Protein backbone atom coordinates (compact mmCIF):
# COMPACT_ATOMS: atom_id res chain seq x y z
CA UNK A 1 0.00 0.00 0.00
CA UNK A 2 1.02 3.63 -0.24
CA UNK A 3 0.02 6.00 2.56
CA UNK A 4 1.40 9.15 4.19
CA UNK A 5 2.15 7.56 7.56
CA UNK A 6 4.87 10.09 8.44
CA UNK A 7 2.55 13.06 7.87
CA UNK A 8 5.00 14.95 5.64
CA UNK A 9 2.66 15.22 2.65
CA UNK A 10 4.45 12.49 0.68
CA UNK A 11 3.11 8.95 0.60
CA UNK A 12 5.32 6.17 1.94
CA UNK A 13 5.43 2.66 0.56
CA UNK A 14 4.09 0.04 3.02
CA UNK A 15 5.43 -3.46 2.31
CA UNK A 16 4.34 -6.75 3.91
CA UNK A 17 6.53 -9.72 3.06
CA UNK A 18 6.11 -13.50 3.04
CA UNK A 19 8.71 -13.85 5.79
CA UNK A 20 6.63 -11.69 8.14
CA UNK A 21 8.62 -8.47 7.82
CA UNK A 22 6.65 -5.23 7.60
CA UNK A 23 8.59 -2.31 6.09
CA UNK A 24 7.94 1.40 5.56
CA UNK A 25 9.90 3.12 2.78
CA UNK A 26 9.99 6.88 2.18
CA UNK A 27 11.02 8.73 -0.94
CA UNK A 28 13.34 11.46 0.32
CA UNK A 29 15.04 11.73 -3.04
CA UNK A 30 13.51 10.98 -6.41
CA UNK A 31 15.87 8.06 -7.05
CA UNK A 32 15.83 5.39 -4.34
CA UNK A 33 13.41 4.64 -1.51
CA UNK A 34 14.80 4.79 2.03
CA UNK A 35 13.82 2.22 4.69
CA UNK A 36 12.31 4.22 7.56
CA UNK A 37 10.87 1.46 9.73
CA UNK A 38 10.63 -2.31 9.88
CA UNK A 39 8.86 -4.73 12.19
CA UNK A 40 8.98 -8.54 12.22
CA UNK A 41 5.83 -10.60 12.70
CA UNK A 42 5.78 -14.33 13.41
CA UNK A 43 4.09 -15.36 10.14
CA UNK A 44 3.68 -14.21 6.55
CA UNK A 45 1.77 -11.03 5.85
CA UNK A 46 -1.19 -11.47 3.53
CA UNK A 47 -2.36 -7.85 3.33
CA UNK A 48 -1.27 -4.39 4.50
CA UNK A 49 -3.14 -1.08 4.61
CA UNK A 50 -2.51 2.40 5.99
CA UNK A 51 -5.19 4.69 7.40
CA UNK A 52 -6.83 6.17 10.47
CA UNK A 53 -8.52 3.32 12.33
CA UNK A 54 -8.34 3.49 16.12
CA UNK A 55 -8.15 7.14 17.16
CA UNK A 56 -8.83 10.29 15.17
CA UNK A 57 -5.69 12.18 14.23
CA UNK A 58 -3.34 9.22 14.54
CA UNK A 59 -2.53 7.20 11.44
CA UNK A 60 -1.98 3.46 11.61
CA UNK A 61 -0.71 0.55 9.59
CA UNK A 62 -2.82 -2.61 9.67
CA UNK A 63 -1.37 -5.94 8.58
CA UNK A 64 -3.30 -9.16 8.13
CA UNK A 65 -1.31 -12.36 8.54
CA UNK A 66 -1.69 -15.76 6.93
CA UNK A 67 -3.71 -17.18 9.82
CA UNK A 68 -6.00 -14.14 9.96
CA UNK A 69 -4.46 -12.16 12.81
CA UNK A 70 -4.58 -8.38 12.54
CA UNK A 71 -1.62 -6.34 13.75
CA UNK A 72 -1.79 -2.59 14.06
CA UNK A 73 1.07 -0.11 14.33
CA UNK A 74 0.10 3.43 15.31
CA UNK A 75 1.65 6.88 15.29
CA UNK A 76 -0.08 7.70 18.60
CA UNK A 77 2.59 8.52 21.19
CA UNK A 78 2.69 6.44 24.32
CA UNK A 79 3.21 8.63 27.39
CA UNK A 80 4.77 6.99 30.41
CA UNK A 81 5.92 8.60 33.58
CA UNK A 82 9.33 7.44 34.65
CA UNK A 83 10.11 8.19 38.24
CA UNK A 84 11.55 6.72 41.35
CA UNK A 85 9.40 3.62 41.58
CA UNK A 86 6.13 5.43 40.83
CA UNK A 87 3.42 3.47 39.11
CA UNK A 88 2.23 4.33 35.64
CA UNK A 89 -0.71 6.74 35.91
CA UNK A 90 -3.60 6.01 33.58
CA UNK A 91 -6.51 8.23 32.70
CA UNK A 92 -10.00 7.24 33.82
CA UNK A 93 -10.91 6.44 30.21
CA UNK A 94 -7.91 4.10 29.86
CA UNK A 95 -8.68 2.40 33.17
CA UNK A 96 -12.26 1.75 32.09
CA UNK A 97 -11.04 0.32 28.75
CA UNK A 98 -8.64 -2.00 30.56
CA UNK A 99 -11.37 -3.12 32.95
CA UNK A 100 -13.75 -3.73 30.05
CA UNK A 101 -11.14 -5.77 28.18
CA UNK A 102 -10.35 -7.83 31.28
CA UNK A 103 -14.05 -8.61 31.76
CA UNK A 104 -14.38 -9.58 28.09
CA UNK A 105 -11.29 -11.80 28.35
CA UNK A 106 -12.66 -13.57 31.43
CA UNK A 107 -15.99 -14.09 29.65
CA UNK A 108 -14.25 -15.57 26.60
CA UNK A 109 -12.10 -17.85 28.77
CA UNK A 110 -15.22 -19.17 30.51
CA UNK A 111 -16.89 -19.73 27.14
CA UNK A 112 -13.86 -21.66 25.84
CA UNK A 113 -13.88 -23.89 28.94
CA UNK A 114 -17.60 -24.59 28.49
CA UNK A 115 -17.15 -25.46 24.82
CA UNK A 116 -14.20 -27.74 25.62
CA UNK A 117 -16.27 -29.59 28.20
CA UNK A 118 -19.14 -29.90 25.73
CA UNK A 119 -16.76 -31.26 23.07
CA UNK A 120 -15.22 -33.75 25.52
CA UNK A 121 -18.67 -35.04 26.44
CA UNK A 122 -19.84 -35.33 22.85
CA UNK A 123 -16.62 -37.03 21.69
CA UNK A 124 -16.93 -39.73 24.36
CA UNK A 125 -20.53 -40.65 23.52
CA UNK A 126 -21.33 -43.78 21.53
CA UNK A 127 -22.79 -41.76 18.64
CA UNK A 128 -19.75 -39.49 18.22
CA UNK A 129 -18.27 -39.17 14.74
CA UNK A 130 -14.61 -38.28 14.47
CA UNK A 131 -13.17 -36.45 11.50
CA UNK A 132 -9.73 -35.21 10.56
CA UNK A 133 -9.65 -31.41 10.54
CA UNK A 134 -8.78 -29.71 7.27
CA UNK A 135 -5.81 -27.37 7.45
CA UNK A 136 -5.05 -24.62 5.02
CA UNK A 137 -1.43 -24.85 3.86
CA UNK A 138 0.56 -21.89 2.56
CA UNK A 139 3.49 -23.32 0.58
CA UNK A 140 6.30 -22.04 -1.59
CA UNK A 141 8.91 -24.09 -3.46
CA UNK A 142 11.65 -21.96 -5.03
CA UNK A 143 14.97 -22.66 -6.72
CA UNK A 144 18.08 -20.96 -5.39
CA UNK A 145 20.27 -20.63 -8.48
CA UNK A 146 23.43 -19.75 -6.53
CA UNK A 147 23.81 -23.12 -4.81
CA UNK A 148 21.42 -25.22 -6.95
CA UNK A 149 19.10 -25.97 -4.04
CA UNK A 150 15.39 -25.66 -3.49
CA UNK A 151 13.68 -23.94 -0.59
CA UNK A 152 10.41 -25.41 0.58
CA UNK A 153 8.45 -23.12 2.88
CA UNK A 154 5.37 -24.57 4.55
CA UNK A 155 3.09 -22.53 6.75
CA UNK A 156 0.24 -24.36 8.44
CA UNK A 157 -1.78 -23.82 11.59
CA UNK A 158 -0.70 -26.95 13.42
CA UNK A 159 2.28 -28.27 15.35
CA UNK A 160 5.37 -29.27 13.36
CA UNK A 161 4.90 -32.82 14.71
CA UNK A 162 1.82 -33.16 12.50
CA UNK A 163 3.53 -32.18 9.23
CA UNK A 164 4.38 -34.99 6.82
CA UNK A 165 6.34 -34.38 3.63
CA UNK A 166 6.15 -37.18 1.09
CA UNK A 167 8.37 -37.17 -2.01
CA UNK A 168 9.24 -39.57 -4.84
CA UNK A 169 12.93 -38.63 -5.08
CA UNK A 170 15.87 -38.59 -2.67
CA UNK A 171 15.60 -35.46 -0.52
CA UNK A 172 18.08 -34.00 1.95
CA UNK A 173 16.50 -31.71 4.54
CA UNK A 174 18.58 -29.06 6.25
UniProtKB/TrEMBL annotation:
GO CC, alphabetical: axoneme; BBSome; ciliary basal body; membrane; neuron projection
One matching Pfam family: Beta-prop_BBS7
Keyword Coiled coil found: yes
Start and end residues of each BBS7 beta-propeller domain: 1-75
UniProt entry tagged with the keyword Ion transport: no
Domain BBS7 GAE: residue ranges: 133-173
Keyword set, alphabetical order: Coiled coil
GO biological process terms held by the UniProt record: cilium assembly; intracellular protein localization
Positions in coiled-coil regions: 91-118
Domain of life: Eukaryota
Cleaved signal peptide residues: none
UniProt protein name: BBS7 protein
Species this protein is from: Fregata magnificens
UniProt gene name: Bbs7
Amino acid sequence: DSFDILGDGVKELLVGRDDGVLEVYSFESADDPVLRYDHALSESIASIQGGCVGKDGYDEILASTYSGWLTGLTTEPVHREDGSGEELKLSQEMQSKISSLRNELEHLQMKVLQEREKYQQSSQSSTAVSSVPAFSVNDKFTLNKDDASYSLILEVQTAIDNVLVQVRVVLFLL
